[in-house]
Amino acid sequence: MKKYKTLKDHVYSYITEQVLEGNLLPSQRINETAISQELSVSRTPVREALIQLSCEGILENVPRKGFVLKGVSEKEASELYIVIGPLDGTAAQMACDILTEKDLSRMDFYIQSMDLAIKTDNYEMYLEQQELFHSVYIEKCDNEVLEDTISRLKSKFFTRGFSKDNASRSKEYLALINDEHREILRLFKEVDKNALFDYITNVHWSPSNAHHELL
User: Fold this and answer.
1) What are 6's strand-pairing partners?
2) Is 28 or 21 the better-scoring residue by pLDDT?
3) Longest dimension (CA), the chain
4) Quick one: average pLDDT of 73-83?
5) Contact yes or no for 53/9 (Cβ under 8 A)
6) Would you state the torsion angle of the CA atoms of residues 84, 210, 123, 163, taken in this order, to the nearest 10 degrees?
7) Lower Cβ count inside 10 Å, N or C end of the chain?
8) How far, in Å, CA of 113 to CA of 215, rounded?
9) What letter would DSSP give residue 177?
10) 3-class DSSP state for residue 27?
11) Predicted confidence (pLDDT) per residue in 193-206, tens digit
């Protein structure tokens, strides 16, 4: 059962979407008043969301400047990959037996959508479809702590410098990652839990791929 979304949760989602869409950049100050007016909420949930994002390392509270968006270094990206991989692999193992044909069809649809996004240089669409692909099995793992932890760690990549402006230079890399999605789907179809964990941990989330997030 999903948690009820508070006003703070809605503000949190709004801010992360703004980062994902490239409307907020590293070192850029977050305008609390503008967010409050845009969402028609008081300053309190905005402040709460900013504090949460700061605790998660996505924002930084700079003296005399306020909250600003942090970047992710290559070292930090590699460290995140090392941690996220086994968590994502565990979620896949837990969900493997209970994914339905409809779930597998959805995952295949998202793969095809990512192909289209790569072809049309639509990096924002690619990220959205990639997130949906992984959410199919992560949400089925029936472990809210695991799901929230993966989401929180992945959210740090919202601040990466790999943006819409240079997506066209990275088509080959994105196509390679989408081929990995195809292999993940194949392993789900074969219900091969151990191979799923190993592939997601050591290939899909290999630290050697981390530098691509910062291109």
Assistant:
1) none
2) 28
3) 56
4) 87
5) no
6) 120
7) N
8) 23
9) H
10) coil
11) 999 999 999 999 99
- The residue type at 47: R
Burial of 11 (0-12, 13-18, 19+ CB in 10 A): buried
Q: Where are the alpha helices (DSSP H) in 57-143?
A: 74-95, 101-119, 123-138
How sure is the predictor about 73, in pLDDT bands with cuts at 50, 70 and 90? Answer: confident
Mean pLDDT of the region 30-56:
92
Q: What is the DSSP letter of 29?
A: B
Question: What is the 8-class DSSP label of residue 129?
Answer: H
Q: Residue 175 and residue 119: Cα distance in Å, rounded?
A: 9
Nearest-angstrom CA–CA distance, 5 and 18:
18
- Identify the residue whose tokens are 């240079």: 166
Count of alpha carbons within 13 Å of 25, Cβ hemisphere only?
5
Q: What is the DSSP letter of 58?
A: S
Q: Give the pair of three-digit tokens for residue 175.
A: 């196509």
Q: Are 30 and 54 spatial neighbours (Cβ–Cβ below 8 Å)?
A: no
